């Protein structure tokens, strides 16, 4: 009976270590992206292909002869932007109820992004402003790029900020010391 219990415990403990591996999201970084007006696009975003979610969007463009500098912090989620797949459209506003005149960055990778680290060539991309509320037309300042890369590496979340340990101030520590000393004196003087 003991052998049977030991075998069952060993089998169950080995199953605990054979959990299915889950792919981690990747941080995709723009590399060598230069617009036709001399401006550049840089930065990165985190993409989890399993849940199809984008986070930590930190993309920016520099000014060129046609387009201006902008920072992009969210992926466009209007119906027009979603239907534009495989293009990735990032906007400079988190409020997407009216995108008129809001700068956007359109990136078109040569292959769908996955959770496998690697490099994906960019076929085309552009930066301009949205011409209407849904961002289904272009506004002024259109500039394009025809090469560049997205480099995907496993995303490592920054460590959480350490929790501070509450302590007493100097008077609190002095008072606690006096109480402990008084208790020790009373304990020593008690008859046994």
Walk me through the structure:
With 192 residues, the chain is an alpha+beta fold. It has helices at residues 2-16, 79-83, 170-189; strands spanning 26-31, 33-34, 40-48, 53-61, 70-72, 74-75, 88-91, 103-109, 118-129, 143-145, 149-154. Strands 1, 2, 3, 4, 5, 6, 7, 8, 9, 10 and 11 form an eleven-stranded antiparallel beta sheet that branches. The longest helix is centred in the last third of the chain and has 20 residues, at 170-189. The radius of gyration is 29 Å and the shape is elongated.
Which features would summarize this protein structure in a list?
192 residues, alpha+beta, eleven-stranded antiparallel sheet, 11 strands, 21% helix
SSE topology:
Layout (H helix, E strand, L loop, with lengths): L1 H15 L9 E6 L1 E2 L5 E9 L4 E9 L8 E3 L1 E2 L3 H5 L4 E4 L11 E7 L8 E12 L13 E3 L3 E6 L15 H20 L3
Structural class by secondary-structure content: alpha+beta
| Low-confidence regions | 8-21
Helical segment tally?
3
The pLDDT mean sits at: 84
Overall form: elongated
Q: What would you say about this model in short?
A:
It is elongated, with a radius of gyration of 29 Å.
């Amino acid at each position: 009976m003991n052998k049977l219990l030991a075998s069952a415990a060993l089998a169950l403990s080995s199953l605990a270590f054979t959990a299915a591996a889950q792919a981690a999201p990747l941080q995709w970084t723009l590399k060598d992206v230069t617009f036709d007006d001399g401006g550049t696009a840089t930065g990165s975003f985190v993409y989890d292909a399993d849940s199809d979610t984008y986070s930590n969007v930190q993309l920016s463009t520099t000014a060129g002869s046609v387009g201006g500098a902008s920072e992009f912090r969210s992926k466009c989620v209007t119906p027009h932007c979603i239907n534009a797949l495989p293009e990735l459209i990032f906007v400079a506003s988190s409020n997407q109820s009216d995108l008129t005149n809001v700068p956007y960055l359109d990136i078109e990778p040569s292959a769908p992004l996955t959770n496998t680290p690697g490099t994906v060539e960019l076929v085309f991309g552009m930066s301009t402003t949205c011409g209407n509320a849904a961002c289904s037309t272009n506004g002024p300042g259109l500039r394009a790029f025809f090469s560049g890369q997205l480099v995907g590496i496993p995303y490592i979340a920054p460590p959480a900020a350490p929790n501070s340990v509450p302590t007493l101030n100097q008077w609190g520590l002095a008072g606690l010391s006096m109480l402990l000393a008084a208790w020790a004196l009373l304990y020593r003087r008690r008859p046994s």
